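Quick note —
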Amino acid sequence: MKKLHIILLVFIAIAIGVLVSFMGNLSTYETIASAKQKEGKSVTIIAKLDNTVPIEYDPAKNPNYLSFHIADTLGNKAKVVYYYGKPYDMEKAERIVLKGKMKGDVFEITQKDGILIKCPSKYKDDPAAAKKNLSENQ
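Predicted structure written out below.
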């Protein structure tokens, strides 16, 4: 084999290795039921805050413990435990994106960036304000 062929094979092998490493970071959104089947593995869930059960957060007692309940689009429900402070305006969230692991019936989030709050748009209920804001920014 020529040196050029060897260099090309090494380059192709490195490219395949890089692509495979990026494939490990691709995540799909799971339902609560499928997350329970993957107990102990890191998953991402999109759900709504279940307002029928109160949020458990007492910063005087433990500022790094938050517990609440979620419901996914299929109607499955689960308790969530987050080991950091309560995110701002969590009660107003339309949806919540959670990254963590199922342990039994509890979804545990151990990373600070494990919760992403999807709040409603401030222009959702006021089309006139949205139109005004659009005309001012042109």
